[in-house]
Amino acid sequence: MRKQKPGISLIELMVVMSLLVIISIVIGSVYISGIKTYRQELAQSSIQSNAQTILDSIINEAKNAQSVEETYSTYVSGTNSVILKVPAIDSNKNIIYSGSAMLFDRIIYYFEDNAIHKVTLADPASARFNQNGLNKTLDNNILVLEFAYDPDILSTTLLTATVSTNQQVGKINRNISLTGRARLRNHL
User: Fold this and answer.
1) Which of 165, 112, 115 lies closest to 137, judged by CA?
2) Which residue, 5, 35, 90, 111, is the most exposed by fewest CB within 10 angstroms?
3) Domain ranges of the chain
4) Which three-class secondary structure state does DSSP give residue 154?
């Protein structure tokens, strides 16, 4: 009889290699799935953060507004636009008066061609005057910007703004809709 040499047989080697391949495939697919999920959640978080920043800007300006104006210059308040009449401020953020009369700026938000625009029409004495007439696009991937006026446009005390966006993240379509409310300072 032959004497067996110490070591592993070809069959044992094949079994171990097969097990290592199976374990590698499982670990690799879990890792790839985790990376995909992370990227999708990161993209959705970015989209939501951008929409929230825009909504916060609108709501903060509305909280400082004395009123909503129906029309100003070539702009009209409605379902997709708002004209906020805000007190003019100096560089120290103090309200500016001319004699006993308060001076005002207009901040306009409107929706056009899937984009949210912000226009500032400021009094020449206002710190906002350096942005006067500037039409700034805040985002161009928006599906909806809607305003609701309570009780109506001319006597608004509560402004509700809704921003909705839809974006393709990987193979998934992500819809995000955010709503904010602001009570205006009509008592000034």
Assistant:
1) 115
2) 5
3) 37-183
4) coil
